[in-house]
Amino acid sequence: MIEQMEVHERGEMYLVDFVYTFKIISHLRGNCNIFRRSGVNFRAGFYKCIVSVLLLSMVPACSTRQVNAPIVDRTIITTVSRIPPAVDYPPVPPGYYRVKSGDGLYRIALDNGQNYHDIARWNNITNPDQIEVGQVLCMKAPIGERLTLMPQSGILAAPADSLSNNRSSSVSRMPAASAASVPTSEEIFQLAWPARGNIVAAFNDRNNKGLNIAGNVGDPVLAANAGKVVYSGAGLRGYGNLIIIKHNAVFLTAYAHNKSLLVKEGDSVISGQKIAEMGNSDASRVMLHFEVRRDGKPVDPIKYLKPQ
C-alpha cells in the first residue's frame, strides 16, 4: 500500500510539472508571435524561447519535495518463557541411581554393569523408554536373586547353599587355602581376542573407552569369554549395532559397529563363539570397538586380553 501511495504521489508531481511547463511554453509562444510582428528576428527569438523552456523545466526537477518515508512496523514482541529452576536433588544411597536429563535405561545399565532387563524388573518398569528425570532406580538385585561367582571359571553359578551335602563334605576335606593364595576376580578374568586386526586406537579414558580393531566387512567378531547376552541392538547412540555380554557380577564386554548381529538377548555364549560380523555402523571406518567394563566403569582391555 505504501509503495502504491508513493507511485501515486510521483504521478501527481509529474503531472503538475507537465502542466506548469505547458503554460510556460504557451506564454513564450505568445512572446514569439510578438517578436514576429515587431520585426524581431524570428529565429533568434525562437531559440531564446527554447532555451528558456529548458531552463524553466529544470526548476521543478531541482526543487526539493518532501516524500514521506515508508511506515514499517518494527514492534518486537518478546515472549519470556519461564524455565523451571533446576531441582537440587539430594544424593542417593549406594546401590541406587538418580536419572539425569538425557539418560536412557540402556546407557544406565551399561555404565553400571547391569542388564537393563534386570533394572527394569527391580524397579517395576514396563517400558524401558519411559523413565523420568529425578527418578531413583535400584541398581542391585534383591537378596533373593543374588548370585555367587565361581572363581575357577569366572562365570555365574547358583548360590553356594544349593550345593549337595556330599559335595560340601568333599570340599570340606580339602586343606584351607591361605588368604594370600586366593585369586582376585581381576587375576582370574582373562579374555580372548574378539577379532583379528591392527589396533587403530588404544584405550583412553577421555576419548576412547576401549580398543578399535581394524578389519574388513564381514570379519568374524568373537565372544571374548563365556557369558550371557544382555543387549543386542542399535539403541545406544555412537555404538551402532552393539552386543553386550555379561560374564559375571563384575565384568561385561561390549562389541560395537557391527554389520550384523548373530545372537539375541538372553542367549548364552561360550568363549570364541562368533557373535557378529564386523562393519562400520555408526562409525567412519570398518572396525570393532571393544570395551571391557568393570562394575560399569571402562577399563583398558589390554590388561585382560591374553597375549596373541
Automatic annotation (TrEMBL):
Source superkingdom: Bacteria
Name of the coding gene: nlpD
Molecular function terms from GO: hydrolase activity
Signal sequence interval, chain numbering: none
Positions of the LysM domain: 95-139
Similarity-based family: Belongs to the E.coli NlpD/Haemophilus LppB family.
InterPro entries, per the entry: Cell_wall_metabolism_enzyme, Dup_hybrid_motif, LysM, LysM_dom_sf, M23ase_b-sheet_dom
Name the record gives this protein: Murein hydrolase activator NlpD
SMART domains xref list: LysM
